[in-house]
Write a structure and sequence with these properties.
One of its GO terms (biological process) is teichoic acid biosynthetic process. This protein has 707 residues and is α/β, with parallel strands linked by helices. The protein has four domains: 203 residues, Alpha-Beta Complex (Spore Coat Polysaccharide Biosynthesis Protein SpsA, Chain A), CATH 3.90.550.10; 109 residues, no CATH class; 166 residues, 3-Layer(aba) Sandwich (Rossmann fold), CATH 3.40.50; 185 residues, CDP-glycerol glycerophosphotransferase, C-terminal domain (Rossmann fold, 3-Layer(aba) Sandwich), CATH 3.40.50.12580. Strand 14, helix 16 and strand 15 form a beta-alpha-beta unit.
Amino acid sequence: MEKVSVIIPVYNTTEFLDSCIDSVLQQTHDNTEIIIVNDGSNEECTTKLVGMDDRIDKVKLFHLPENKGVAFARNFGLEKASGDFVYFLDSDDYISNTTLENLVSHIGEFPMITGKNVSVNKANELAAIEYKKPFVIYKRKRLSRFKNRSAVNRLVRMDFIKEHGLQFKEDVKVFSDMEFILPFISLMPRVPYLKTALYFKRKRNDPINNPSLMQDLSSEEKIKDFLKVFNALKDQYAETPQAIRYLDRHFLNFFRKSIVLHCQTHGDIENVFREASYSANKVDKKAYSHLNIVVRQEINYLKNGNLSKFNKMMRLHLRLRKSKRAVQSKRKFFIQMYRSVFLKMPVKEKTIVFESFLGKNYSCSPKYIYEYMVKNNYDYNYVWIFNEKGRQLPGNPKQVKRFSLSYYYYLARAKYWVSNSRLPKHLDKREENVYLQTWHGTPLKKLVFDMNDIHSANPNYKSDFYSQSRRWDYLIAPNQFSHDIFKRAFLFDKEMLDTGYPRNDILHNEKDTDLPNEIKRKIGIPLDKKVILYAPTWRDGDFIDRGKYRFDLSLDLAKLKETLGDEYVVLLRMHYFIANNIDISGFEGFAYELSKYEDIAELYLISDMLITDYSSVFFDYASLRRPILFFAYDLELYRDTLRGFYMDIEKELPGPLVRNTDEIINSIQNVDQMNIEYKDKYDAFYDKYCGWEDGKASERVVKKVFK
């Protein structure tokens, strides 16, 4: 059986190594060697690699004394490889278990065969891609098989590498693969491509603390490296038409994407213009004759070295691009108006914009901050953002529809922004703006930069969060526990307001008034019934689309009604991310579906008991010192796979963990005994998480922010 040498350069990828190395060890092709080149990694990563080397026979581990770059590490690996074939794998990626067998079986007499790349953002889950049987596609259009400029997921004959002296370009950080793959373009009449040879390409979800190489470099560095590689290969392959067409095509693609984007972000390309002009003069005019006149003129000015005219044409290009987008949809037009008109208007010093849960509710801390200001006659103009306008609100504030033209107008002009969740990335915070981020809960589940992997619909979650949270001027903490976590997990370096949550003022100020009965009457709950509130959270792994999650009710309503229906009613309140409604047909009068009820704090106030899971609602509810049950039917999955917790919930929670409806019923029927059993834990929990709250948090926040 022919031998495959799998070469894996490693640089500080500790959390990805197990899935990467295991995917090679589990190959159905038996004759493999794993050559790991430790490219000057940190101590943690090096220690993990040494442990693998000690226990896995197939691994050959080599340590470089300092970081030399991926090109040097791959070239080093080639020198150590003894296989008939070579396969390159990045240490943060992984492959399906039949990839090598499929490639070896179908390479035939070709010097190289390539497989299918699949983008993923989960570390422990292979994409469900199946084909009935392997088949090879022989691509006559060779250039299409090399458009990603990468050497990964290509099985290459070692004798071909030696015959042509193939290496990676070591004097650049990125685009070094192009030097290695270009000979295949010029020498192979057809390129075999196998769909069943799967390579799973991971997009790093923490580009702030643990970026990939491409995420770590500035756009200017990438441009300089690309031009350096392009120039060298253009000279080397000047007499090879296929290679020239490939290089010209990639230059034009890089120009339209990376160079134009750099100009859009930085205003011009003065620092790299000279190199770009030199490279542009190597591009055949026929290669861009089919492009639109604006791009053609840009390239001509670039070739002529006329920076002033190039910048003017680039600005025209960007204006035309924005105008084109603006006419494509109403929302894009609004964004264009926001940037080109509204942001140029003066800021209104006495205007405050409020938003709660992405415009879905009039609730949470923004509501109570607003109502405190109205009640105490603060002289401001108030604007509330909603998905649907028309609410009857105290103080009669201006209501605007989210993502309407008015939305962009008021966010551009208001001095103050108050929200409990992130505002969209495309909003530009002005220097005069003050952004109060109230957030929406004491964290039980790990947050953002405390999470190793992201199991959600958005692989850019961490980078998006980082850019959005840089706009916050103030962040409210409900307790010291949250203060410490928010600082670290949000990388927050501005002012923390250690005030307690304004949204919990109602729990201290209204629990002994007639308000609870008023709320019950409004909902239609009999005043003689005790109330159980069931408020679970969402599961990261059950995403449907960005910001939308599925939830399957595990609570047996029929059994609860049969056993407890004479004394209790149940309120169902889902997280605002959960997209599906819970069907309570047949349980009317016992179960109430209140997921769309505006303010969950009012539901706390009328409830005699809370059932939750991993939702942070219990931190707030504990302010009432009422019983709490923790319905943790999927504890191991949630704790160990999806999120992880900040506390040992089996030791610290102020109520019992229950796994099924029978255990819930038993706890409710013996609630007095449960209260006695958990009294000491409840007292300690209250002191730690509720100790800052006294009904005056709104007052403290307002006096600090709205001076």
